[in-house]
Design goal:
The chain is an all-beta fold. The chain contains no helices and 25 strands. The chain folds into four domains: about 80 residues, Immunoglobulin-like; about 100 residues, Cadherins (Immunoglobulin-like), CATH 2.60.40; about 100 residues, Cadherins (Immunoglobulin-like, Sandwich); about 40 residues, no CATH class. Helix content is about 0%, strand content about 40%. One of its GO terms (molecular function) is calcium ion binding.
Length: about 350
């Protein structure tokens, strides 16, 4: 009997037979007490009565899938004789239950850069129905954010695995819906939230926003030479960057208030005559383990200032000449040099 059968429905039963005659063969029927069924008698041709089961209450296969009844036939003789038969009622399933997930929201935390086909989590839904009505398959409820490009779900096991690389810097959280569908078309739903954990997979990046070169050699200490932007796409300690200069350049690093910008300033006076240019390497290291580094090379040329006076090769020249030397004769050649360059180093005599 199907669990969808309405109360009041009748189900004919087999008729008992008694080989005696007269009142000894008159039969009455009795049914063992059962809240779901009662016994009714239907008149048949020839005055015989047909016993019938009458459904009194709606059946629910999920609560009770079968019932045991005993039908007794009693004759009218003295002494009374009786016969019994066992009746087993199997309740046929109706697809009246939807799949139900064990959780309404599933949460998982996975590291970025997982290899493809790595297990993220497993969902599970149950259906109280039987047979195909209770067989559940899984699928994505929607795909508005391209979830299928990164995740796949096994329709039978409910396992969710990665199909593509996860990148924390691109997106650090995914939310999507799942559907469980039984063989009768009923569905259940749940939500999945996947948090992506950061890995130290990005090295610091140094961008030179501005560079003043050449720098006058008489520029005062504290003059800004370059403005740099230092960025690490990772988060937390993986994205915390420290910077240092290598080389003997007379420059130092000053951090801006925002933290991501660095300023190179003169730490001491320049001297072009000592060094006409300075090459240095800026190294940025993050706080990951192991740490990643980024570098930038900077060349600063020193612009000459007229900070040197001409210097004669001798402080005093002594020349002895005869008194009859002709007019226009060269008596001596003096030489002076200037350490500056260009016009600043061009010497005139008077």
């Amino acid at each position: 009997i199907g669990e969808w059968t309405l109360p009041g429905s009748h189900f004919p039963l087999a008729v008992a037979r008694d080989a005696d005659a007269g009142s000894n063969s008159l039969l009455t029927y009795q049914l063992t007490g059962n809240p779901f069924f009662s016994l009714a008698m239907k008149e048949r041709s020839g005055g015989k009565k047909q016993p019938e089961l009458v459904l009194e209450r709606a059946l629910d296969r999920e609560k009770q899938s079968s019932l045991e009844l005993v039908l007794t036939a009693v004759d009218g003789g003295d002494p009374v004789r009786s016969g019994t038969v066992q009746i087993r009622v199997n309740v046929t399933d109706l697809n009246d239950n939807s799949p139900v997930f064990t959780k309404s929201i599933y949460e998982a935390r996975v590291a970025e850069n997982l290899p493809a086909e790595s297990l993220v989590l497993r969902v599970r839904a149950t259906d109280a129905d039987a047979g195909s009505n209770g067989r559940v398959t899984y699928s994505f409820r929607n795909d508005l954010n391209g979830v299928h490009l990164l995740f796949a779900i096994d329709s039978e096991s409910g396992e969710i695995r990665t199909t593509g690389p996860l990148d924390f810097e691109e997106k650090n959280k995914y939310s999507f819906g799942l559907e469980a569908r039984d063989g009768g078309g009923l569905t259940g739903h749940c939500e999945v939230e996947v948090d992506i954990m950061d890995e130290n997979d990005n090295a610091p990046e140094i961008t030179i926003l501005s560079l003043s070169s050449p720098v006058p050699e008489d520029a005062p200490v504290g003059t800004v030479v370059a403005l740099l932007k230092v960025r690490d796409r990772d988060s937390g300690e993986n994205g915390q960057v420290s910077c240092e200069l290598s080389g003997e350049a007379p420059l130092s690093i000053v951090a801006s208030s925002g933290g991501s910008y660095k300023v190179l300033v003169l730490a001491k006076a320049l001297d072009r005559e000592e060094a006409a240019f300075h090459e240095l390497v800026l190294r940025a290291s993050d706080g990951g383990d192991p740490a990643r580094t980024g570098t930038a090379r900077i060349r600063v040329t020193v612009l000459d200032a007229n900070d040197n006076t001409p210097v004669f090769s001798q402080g005093e020249y002594t020349v002895r000449v005869p008194e009859d030397v002709p007019v226009g004769s060269t008596l001596v050649t003096v030489t002076a040099t200037d350490a500056d360059e260009g016009p600043n180093g061009h010497v005139k005599y008077s």
